[in-house]
Each structure stands twice: as structure tokens, then as C-alpha cells.
Amino acid sequence: VSSLIGIDWGTSSLRAALIGADGQVQGEVSLARGILTVPAGGFAQVLHEATAQWPQHERSLHLACGMVGSRQGWQEAPYCPCPAAFEQVAGSLAWAQAGHVAIVPGLTCERDGVPDVMRGEETQVFGALSLLGLESALLVLPGTHSKWVRVQAGRIVEFSTFMTGEFYALLRQHSILARTLPQDETALDAAEFERGVRYAMACANLLHAAFSARTLSLFDRMPPQSAASYLSGLVIGEELRSQHLRDAREPVVIVGSEALTGRYGMALRALGVPSRAVGSEATWRGLWTIAQHLGKPV
Amino acid sequence: VSSLIGIDWGTSSLRAALIGADGQVQGEVSLARGILTVPAGGFAQVLHEATAQWPQHERSLHLACGMVGSRQGWQEAPYCPCPAAFEQVAGSLAWAQAGHVAIVPGLTCERDGVPDVMRGEETQVFGALSLLGLESALLVLPGTHSKWVRVQAGRIVEFSTFMTGEFYALLRQHSILARTLPQDETALDAAEFERGVRYAMACANLLHAAFSARTLSLFDRMPPQSAASYLSGLVIGEELRSQHLRDAREPVVIVGSEALTGRYGMALRALGVPSRAVGSEATWRGLWTIAQHLGKPV
């Protein structure tokens, strides 16, 4: 039994962790070396530099997930179709360096004739399920492109993407609303955030709901420094509106950073929906679980 | 009976028209002198320059609508509350120069505790109704911030704003979708546009539907040069989704530029809803009708 180097390699950043044979994270590193910064053929070198502090683990298995497996990444790992069990994902690794560096494939699913995709989140999902000891759950992985994932009996049955974080950034930085929003991120105003969540649900259309951030400020019905909190509530509420939360018998599992899981937990609570949170350790647990499954520690 | 100078003075541009006593437009001018370009106290001078080609009408009534009546404009014309009849709007002009330059007030209405506003569109609505000889209608004024307006027995009963044009521009220019969209505006692909309209309706959430513009392109299921048409269909479809179009007994009245009324007409047709279009002459007709009502050509 040996240790593992886990790698979460996305578009804008690279995170790596030294994971012991027992699954415990022994060290972690984060670099602004997302795949978009890596020249073709340069992935091995960047990875080598990123893990230079662990020379004694140079020959350990390196297992990566995220956009590193996309067409623009190190090596394309073709999407696994849903429903997808853990075993299918673990059995479909793409080897960037034979027996040494493997990449976890992303998933695809289809609804209404339109495909959806994820890369990296599948690893977080399997990791979160393992950490929580669950076989079935409704999970949300909030972010630039939030993923809602339904798991039944250990299989990812379906998922869908919501461009929530990206819409928030667009509205915050480039829209007419940006003129009246505070320039600096201020502390979250929970009351205005929840007001935004509720209004988005009632309004049922963000194209209309977003305009309220302007008119409420125009009519002095919102503290100016709370406008960003309200807007955050609007976009998260719009995302929650399309989930079948009344059917959720178990707490929704939120996987992500503390800041985001906190906001989503608050929004769900405002709607009377219980939730539980898992942090970034889900990625490392997911990679470690896949490595265990390989049954061949290098 | 005398002629009238009509002025449509918005945030980014100024349009003026010489309108004869019979309501016919005898000349028109358009300048990039929106209110944001005018220094405080400089409005009279800019207007004088804009209408310099009509010196013999210098003493005619000048009637303006649009953001020129906002706090950032020449003189604030306080919003009239809905429901608002034509007579109330015509009777609430703000005089920027006594007996000479008047500004048409905007409208406000309230729903779910949130105010909505318009400035300029009220004049287009009254003008379109006059041109079409209607007393009741459902109207849409597409644009950066589209307005849906319900008129009953000559009164604007309620309206709501959709940030459709702005969301389209944000997604087109600043989002991840911009990477795969053609840089130049290409000819409208009617089939992909209608596909976007239908998918937005089926999906019922733009945060999710917008991601399809990425995945369809990723899976080569859409001609790359048609991606902007599809995206346009998505945002317009999302706007149409929230209108009570099945209740519409009469054709929806679309007021705006030829390009936009064409797209909205096409989208409505795809949903089986009849429409009729009115162009920018609605503004001049609205201003002329208000001037008639004043009963005192200067």
C-alpha cells in the first residue's frame, strides 16, 4: 500500500495533494497554473514543478481530475455517459503516462435532445458520498457553473449545469447594475440575500427579477451596500427554483468552498430545505477511492 | 395649429423630428448625444444644436420623452403610477422651459412589493395605440430592457421589464460562450433561432438553458456560425416564457426597430401567437398626440 498524488487541474488553477495510504491528506499545494496557462506538451513539466516538494513520492500514482482531461488539456479522457456507476468511471481512466499519471473522465448526460457535461465534479461527488457513507443523494456543487447531481444506488443518474456564478459575475461587473453596486465585496447581508432568493422564486424569471436590483436601489428600498448580497440571492434563488426540492427526502449535499456552501445552505434553509456541507476534501477522497479501486498502488 | 419638435432623448442617443400640424414627420435627426454625454446645465444648448436645421420652428413647442426626464436628465419628471390613462400622462408634463420645452413623465407600477419603471416607452405605447386605432392591447417594446405592457380601455394597467437585450450582450461579449461565438454578427439562422426559443421555453431557466449554447457547440450539434442566432432565440424565448400569451385574444403589438420586431414576430409565430409591428414612428405619433391634448400649440 502506497501513497498517492491527487491533482485537481482546472481551467484557471492546479491543486495537488499528497494522500497517504490511509486516505489522509499529508500536504497540499495550489498554483495559478490552470490548463489554459500550459503550452502544448508542457503538462508533465508543470506537474513536476507543482509536486517538487514531495520528491520521495515522485514514483507514486498521480491521479488527476478536471479540465486536464478535456480536448484542451493534457490528454482527452472521453466522457462517460450517465447513468454512471463509480466502477465505470474508475475503469475508464485515461493514462497520460502509462502506469504513472492517470486522468479521471468526465460525465455526460442528455435531456430534451441537449447534452450536458461535467469534468472534476464526478470525483467530488463520489468523494462526498464516500465521506458521508451515502449511496443515494441529491447534491449541488456550486460555482461558476453549478452542477446539480442525482445519485441513486451509487450511480450518477443525471445532472444539470446552471451558469449561476458566471451570471453573477457578468451582472456584478458588466451590467447596468454594476453602476449602483458597491465596488468592493462587502460582508453578506443575510436579510437582503434571502429577500433575493425569495423574489427570484416568486418572479420565476431572472431577466425580470434582475431589474429589481436596479429599481429597489432607485427607490431607496435597499441599503446600497447590500445590493450585491441581494443580487447573489437572486441568482442562487433562480438556480434553486428549478430543483425538485420538495421531493428531497434527505438533506441536500452541498460540496464546495466554505463561502459557497454557506450561502447555498442559507438559501436552502430560507426555503425550508435541510442541507449538509462537504468541503474540498471531497476531491481528495474521490481520487483516493478511485485509486483504491485500481487495486494496484504503484 | 402649429408644428411640433418631438424629441426622443435617451441614455445614449438623441433623436429629434419636425412634426407638422397634421402629425406627419417632415424631417428627422439623430445624434450620439445621449443624456450621459451632456454636462449639467448643457441640455438647452445641445437641443439647440440638434434642431439647428429647423430655425423657423425655434419657437414651436418642444416635447421630449425618455431618460431626459430622469434624475440624471434635464429636469426630473416624476413617475406617474399605473394604472395610467393617456390624459394623466399628458397632464403631468414637466416644463424644462416654461411654455416651450416639456418632458413627458415616465410610469411606475408595483408587484410583489417591487417597483418597475419606464421612461419613453409610455409615449411609444400611446403612439402605437393611436396609429393602430386600439384601446386595449398587449404590447412588447423589445430592447436592452424590454417592456411588456398591458393596456385596457386606454389605460396602461401594468407593465414589466425584462433585461433581455442586456443579458444577450453580456453573454455574447463577456461570457464563456463568447469564446465559441462568431466575432462578427452574422445573418440570422431562423431554424437555430427558433430552436433556441423552444429550448428556453422547455427548459424554463436561462441559467441552465444558456449552457446548451456551449454543449451543442462542443458536440458539433450546431453550426458554429449559427451560435449567436441560437443564443438570441434563447434569451427572447426566456422572455416570452413569462408572458401570458395563451390569454392573448388579439395579436401582440411589437413596437421597435425593424430588426427587433422581426425577431420577436418570428419567435411569437414559432409559438403560434400572432403579432403586428409598429416602428419608431410610434414615438413621434405619441408626442404629437400629447401635444394635441395640450390644446395650446405655441
Total of DSSP H or I helical runs spanning 4+ residues of chain A? 10
Radius of gyration of chain A equals: 20 Å
Low-pLDDT segments of chain A: none
The biggest beta sheet of chain A reads: 6 strands, mixed
Give the termini distance of chain A in whole angstroms: 8 Å
Got a strand count of chain A? 15
Tell me what you see in this structure.
- Two copies of one chain form a homodimer.
- With 298 residues, chain A is of the alpha/beta class.
- The first copy, chain A, has a six-stranded mixed β-sheet with strand order 3-2-1-4-8-7, with helices on one face. A six-stranded mixed β-sheet of chain A has the order 6-13-12-11-14-15, sandwiched between helices. A three-stranded mixed β-sheet of chain A has the order 5-9-10, with no helix packed on it.
- In chain A, a hairpin with a 3-residue loop joins strand 7 and strand 8 (101-103).
- The radius of gyration of chain A is 20 Å and the shape is globular.
- In chain A, helix 8 crosses helix 9.
- The mean pLDDT of chain A is 94.
- Helices cover 35% and strands 24% of the residues of chain A.
- The interface between A and B is large, with 40 and 40 residues.
